[in-house]
Amino acid sequence: MKINDNYQNIQNNFAYVNANNAAAASKVASEKDGSTDSSVKVEATTPNTDRVELSSDAKVTNKMSDADRAALVESLKSDLNTQTTRFTNMMMQMFNKQGITGLQAGSDAFWRQIASGNYTVDAQTKAEAQQAISEDGYWGVKQTSQRIFDMAKAIAGDDTEMMKKMQNAIEKGFEQATAAWGKELPGICGETHTAINGMFDEYYKNAGVA
């Protein structure tokens, strides 16, 4: 299946954005918050109303038509764009309040500012980040690894050689995320990377590919 001539770039960029956001959320979640009362515990219980939920019929299967696969790719991209915008807007607002200006959301300078830890995290932002990287959180290992793998399968279809190209594109995406971060990515990204490779190993095993 060929969605367009830039399929590897699509997967590469998808992995890059996911890795950077997961790394940033992990960093924010681990930062000491700037609350005046350290005893206050803020829980992020507000529903994520802008989350794009995929129906059970949209799950990746070998029986999906080309049109269904193309639609799933667009759904995954749209969902990621929505969540990335939500996260980067939250961080930009926090930076601006602290006089940190001149950053472009999603730029290398933006990611490196987060990686530096040279800012104060308010309790609510920290709580939301902790929720986001939790076991069932959007930027957690389980959802992030499944999302990246699903994108690869949606693009490749039943073509195992294409899946190998998708896996290589994911590797490049993580490498580029590390370069943008300016140092080794947080542990959650390594765990996510390992989980993705495990999914590929299982895929190849089931497909009878050595």
Average pLDDT figure: 85
Low-confidence runs (pLDDT<50, min 5 residues)? 36-58
Please report which band the strand proportion falls in: under 5%, 5-15%, 15-25%, 25-35%, 35-45% or over 45%. under 5%
Secondary-structure element pattern, one letter each: HHHHHHH
| Cα Rg | 18 Å
Q: What best-fitting shape do the alpha-carbon axes yield?
A: elongated
Helix content: 55-70%
User: In total, how many beta strands?
Assistant: 0
Which helices and strands appear, and what pairs or packs with what?
Elements: H1 7-30, H2 66-97, H3 108-116, H4 123-132, H5 141-156, H6 160-181, H7 187-207
Helix pairs in contact: 1-2, 1-4, 1-5, 1-6, 1-7, 2-5, 5-6, 5-7, 6-7
What would you say about this model in short?
This protein has 210 residues and is mainly alpha-helical. The chain has helices at residues 7-30, 66-97, 108-116, 123-132, 141-156, 160-181, 187-207.
